[in-house]
DNA sequence: CGCGCTGTTGAAACTTGTCAAAGTTTGTGG
DNA sequence: CCACAAACTTTGACAAGTTTCAACAGCGCG
């Protein structure tokens, strides 16, 4: 499955956690340097996923979790009638595949929305190393817990907010995550379609489009297709506060 | 905080995992008997929570997770305007407090909906023991992962289903969980109000009430206040299938 | 360079929420 | 144990928000 050649070229591409500029966003967070070196051994290889390709599919056996090194993913499931339901968007430093642990097979699809790179973290090795490195164990538990908290936040969004509030929350969340990664908080490129945003927010694509237009009318943002410029962050926040 | 006297009385009430008839639903699942005995030492004590009382509150420091031994809980948050948003209902064998790991403080409130008993599991001891007992570690990871999968299921419910579909899914889910615990799949008592069901399902209480009435008209269930009798499980399933 | 996917906008239909009133159950204190 | 108050539930009529259907514009990929 993974040839020595790939292994070597990966190394030359700085596969090592100790060299990764995402280590403050990822599993190595807070680990001592000797511990991070052990992590390096665990992270078997990198995998490149081109735009539109699957990182994994629902039903496939679960063996590894993945850390996004570069790029942008969506996760979701295909419903019986063929529609897609998007459950999340992941960017660099975020983990993919945690849902597969429980059933030992992936429960959703993960698709790259742009050419991406991930670190492959064999789960049994992660568990093994977690038994040795206390802070890695604790870190991993925190990451899983954060995922639970995140999901509950979305449940609240879906359960109690109107269309415009949902979109405002979505934009502010993206803005905040881009900021953490050193990008502009106010200007970015959406990697997903209106359809995918709508699916994620529990809205139809037309409703998403209308909300974008409304925000633009109110000079809160400027939209040009997928290019978003947030003009008034406090204004977006006020939309959230209205009902929530 | 916990006197020897309480400790002893707890023991006499069969605090031990090895004696617990929920062990197939809880953390001890699949552990060898010598390992379960180590678990017994970890589970410090039981705690009794009367109906309406809080097990924990949002913002309190996180120290332990809890396993429901007996009873019924709801978790939720209070929004700024005073409304409550319910994020889950927990019954025997299910864990509470996993969301607190990430921030080291509880992110929601947990309230007993009937007089309940929980096992208090100090989290640092759980992590410590997880480093020794491989199957406990794996079990715990599975439990957390299952929570993530569960939340994503609710996201899909909230994002893509109509009122009656949501209520049908809710009833079928309860039915299934009661069945697992040896109770009737078709007849049970709701511990929560229409308001709380509505909050959980992203609906107003009136809508929940109307959906109950509609199901009753269609001879799918018989409702008498909080007492539910499911007359036609396949019929409820068909309601789910319609749009999903 | 054109075809297809994506996005925008309008009008009508539908679902759910809001407000209001009345009935029912539960819990408490006398 | 009863009576009363508070909380919960049901139902109706109307309002608001979202979806559906349809038409058209624009961008981007091959």
Give a brief outline of the structure:
With 244 residues, the first copy, chain A, is α+β, with helices and mostly antiparallel strands. Helices cover 45% and strands 24% of the residues of chain A.
**Name of the level-1 CATH class of the largest domain in chain A:** Mainly Beta
Distance between the termini of chain A: 50 Å
Biggest interface goes to: A-B, 46 and 46 residues
Structural domain tally of chain A: 2
Alpha carbon gyration radius of chain A: 19 Å
Helix share bin of chain A = 40-55%
- Assembly form of the protein: homodimer
Mean pLDDT of chain A: 91
In the CATH hierarchy, the third-tier topology of the largest domain in chain A is known as Jelly Rolls
Q: Determine the number of helices of chain A (DSSP H or I, runs of at least 4 residues).
A: 9
CATH architecture of the largest domain in chain A: Sandwich
CATH homologous superfamily caption of the largest domain in chain A: Jelly Rolls
Task: Give start-end ranges of low-pLDDT stretches of chain A.
Answer: 1-12
Q: Sketch the major β-sheet of chain A.
A: 6 strands, antiparallel
Cα shape of chain A: globular
| Element string of chain A (H = helix, E = strand) | HHEEEEEHEHHHEHHEEH
Number of strands of chain A: 9
Taken as a percent bin, the fraction of beta residues of chain A is 15-25%
């Amino acid at each position: 499955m993974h040839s020595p050649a790939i292994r070597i070229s990966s190394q030359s591409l700085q596969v090592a956690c100790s060299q990764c500029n995402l280590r403050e966003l990822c599993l190595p967070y807070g680990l001592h340097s000797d511990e991070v070196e052990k992590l390096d051994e665990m992270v078997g290889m990198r995998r490149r996923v081109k735009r539109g390709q699957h990182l994994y599919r629902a039903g496939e056996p679960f063996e590894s979790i993945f850390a996004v090194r570069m790029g942008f993913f969506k996760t979701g499931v295909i419903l019986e009638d063929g529609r897609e339901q998007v459950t999340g968007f992941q960017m660099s430093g975020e983990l993919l595949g945690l849902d597969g642990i429980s059933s030992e097979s992936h429960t959703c699809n993960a698709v790259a929305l742009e050419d991406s790179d991930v670190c492959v973290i064999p789960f049994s090795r992660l568990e093994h190393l977690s038994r040795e490195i206390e802070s890695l164990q604790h870190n991993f538990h925190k990451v899983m817990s954060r995922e639970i908290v995140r999901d509950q936040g979305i449940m609240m969004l879906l359960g109690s907010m109107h269309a415009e509030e949902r979109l405002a929350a979505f934009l502010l969340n993206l803005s905040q995550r881009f900021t953490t990664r050193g990008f502009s908080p106010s200007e970015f490129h959406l990697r997903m379609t209106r359809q995918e945003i709508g699916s994620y927010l529990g809205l139809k694509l037309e409703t998403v489009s209308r909300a974008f237009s409304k925000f633009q009318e109110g000079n809160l943002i400027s939209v040009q297709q997928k290019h978003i410029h947030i003009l008034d962050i406090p204004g977006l926040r006020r939309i959230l506060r209205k009902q929530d």
